[in-house]
Amino acid sequence: MKQNLVCYHCSSAILPGELIEADLAGVSRPFCCPGCMAIAQTIHGEGLEVFYARRAQAGARPAAYLASNEIPEKLQPYDDPSLRSRFTRPFGDAGELETTLRLEKIRCAACVWLCEQHLRRISGVKDVQINYVTQKVMVRFSPDQTSLARLIFEIERVGYEAWPFEPSLSLERAKKERRQLLTRLGVALLGMMQVMMYAWPSYVGANDITAEYDLLLAWASWALTVPVMVYSAGPIFQAAWRSVLSFKQTRMLGMDVPIALALALAFIAGTINLITGSGQSYFDSITMFVAFILAARYVELLARQDAQGGAEALAKQLPATCERITDYPSSQVVALVPVVNCNPGDVLRVSPGEVVPADGILIENASALDESLLTGESKPVEKKLGDRVYAGTHNILNPLIMRIEAVGQSTRIAGIASLLDQALLAKPVMVSLAEKWAAYFVAFLLLSAFLSSAIWLYFDPSRAWTVLVSVLVASCPCALSLAVPTAMAAAQ
User: pTM of the prediction?
Assistant: First the structure.
C-alpha cells in the first residue's frame, strides 16, 4: 500500500524502498527524499503550514496536472524543432543536446539538491549542473530519450518553475535584485547617519544636556534602529535561520550566523540598557555595522552580475527578425519573419548595416563582414561565395544572400555564451578552499565568543555580554566571505 503513496511536499510518486516518514504537527507524513522532508520541516517550523492547504485549494494541478505523466499542452511547443534549436545546442559527437534553464522558487541548498536529483532520474539525462547564485540549471540530455518540454515539466512536478533562459528576463531580475539591495543599503545609511547625530553628544562628552533630552535622543536612536534591523538586515537573519535549519544536512553554518547573532545580541543588550537606564546602547554601532555589510555586498553583487552579463550581452547582438526568401532561387520575394521560425536550409537576405541572424554559407553577392564580436579583429573580413558567415557579425558592403546551417543555440555565438556560463559554473580551487575554511572559521568564531563570555562571566559578570558581542563583531568573517568571490567574479 505504501508503494502508492505520493510525497507530501512535491506530490511525486514514491518509488519502492525510498519512503521517508516524518512527524509534522503530530501527523506522520510521507516524503520521497530528504530534500522534500527538510523543506516541509522548515515550512512547518516557521508556522507556514497553511501553504499546503492553499496549494490544495488552488485547483486540480497537484492531482491532475502533476500526477499525470503526459506533458501538458502549454509545454508541448518547446518540442517544436524551431524552438528546440533556439533553446538547445549540440554537445559532443553522440547527438546529445545541452540547454540552460532558469529556475524559480529556489531558496536553499535543499531545493538545489531536490531539483538536481529528480532530473538525474529522468531517462536520457546525462548531466545536470545547478548554479544557486545565478539560479540556472544546465542540462545535457539525449533527444532520442527525453525532450526539452519533459525537462521543464519534471521540474514543475517537484514544486518549482523553470523556463528556457532568456537574457531579457534575467536582466529584469538582476535590476530588481540591485534595486532591492540598494534600497536596503539606503535605509541603513540614513539610519546610521541619524543615529550617529543623536549619539554625537555622548562622543564629545557634552554635559549641558538634561537627562530628559538625553533619554529622548536615546529612544529616537532606538526607533531609527528598528527599521534597519527589520528591513535592511532582514535578509541576513533569514539566511542565518536557513543555515541553522539545514545544519543537520550540511554540517556547516553560513557566515550570516555570527553576523545575525551579533546584531541580535547587541540590539537586545542596548534595548535592555535603555529600559533600565544603565549601561551603553549599541544602536550607533548596529546601524553602522549593517550599513558597512550591505555596502560590501552591493559591491560584490555588482561584480558578480557584471561577470554574468557577458553571455547576455552576446545574446543581445542577434536580431529578432530577418528577411527570408520564400522561394529561392526561382523567386526573390522577401518576407520579414521572426528568427526563431527559421530552420537550417532556409535562405536569408542580409542588407548592409544589418546583423547576420544565423550561421550559414554565403551563396550570392560577395561582401565584407565585421567579425570583431567573435574574433576581436576590427578590420572587415572579405567574404566570397561558399564562405561561412556567423551570427552576430555585421554586414558592411553588399546585400548578401546566405543559406542557414545553424540557428539559435547551435550558432557559434551561442557556443561562446555557453562557455561563459560554464566558466561561471566552475568552482576554482581557491574558492573551494575559501568556502571550506570559512565554515571552520565560523565554528571557531562561535566557540571563541561563547568561551570568552563564559570566562568573563566568572571574573566580571558585568562585562560578559559586552565581550560576547565584541568578539562576534570584531571577528566577523565578512572579508573572508567577500574577498575571494569578488576577486573571482571580477577575473571571470
Answer: 0.49
C-alpha cell at 394: 555585421
Residue appearing with cell numbers 521543464: 152
What is the percentage of the chain residues whose pLDDT exceeds 70?
A: 77
Residues 140 and 91 sit within 8 Å (Cβ to Cβ): yes
Percent of the chain with pLDDT over 90: 7
Cα–Cα dist 285/203, whole Å = 13
Lowest mean pLDDT segment, chosen from 127-131, 273-277, 473-477: 473-477
341-377 as b/e, with b when 16 or more CB fall inside 10 Å? ebeeebbbbbeeebbbbbbbebebbebbbbbebbeee
Q: What secondary structure letter does DSSP report for 2?
A: G
Report the sign of the C-alpha dihedral through residues 252, 254, 259, 261, in that order: negative
61-66 contact pairs (CB < 8 A, 24+)? 62/11, 63/11, 66/11, 66/12, 66/156, 66/157
Burial of 204 by CB count in 10 Å (0-12 exposed, 13-18 middle, 19+ buried)? exposed
Is pLDDT above 90 for 32? Answer: no
Spatial contact of 255 and 242, defined as CB atoms under 8 Å apart: no
On the question of pLDDT at 480 being above 60, the answer is no
Name the CA radius of gyration of the chain, rounded: 29
- Give just the sign of the alpha carbon dihedral 102, 107, 108, 110: negative
| C-alpha cell of residue 241 | 535561520
Show contacts of 67-71: CB within 8 Å, 24+ apart: 67/6, 67/11, 67/13, 71/147, 71/149, 71/150, 71/153
pLDDT value, residue 490: 58
Cβ-contact 149, 71 below 8 angstroms: yes
Residue 224: the pLDDT is 93
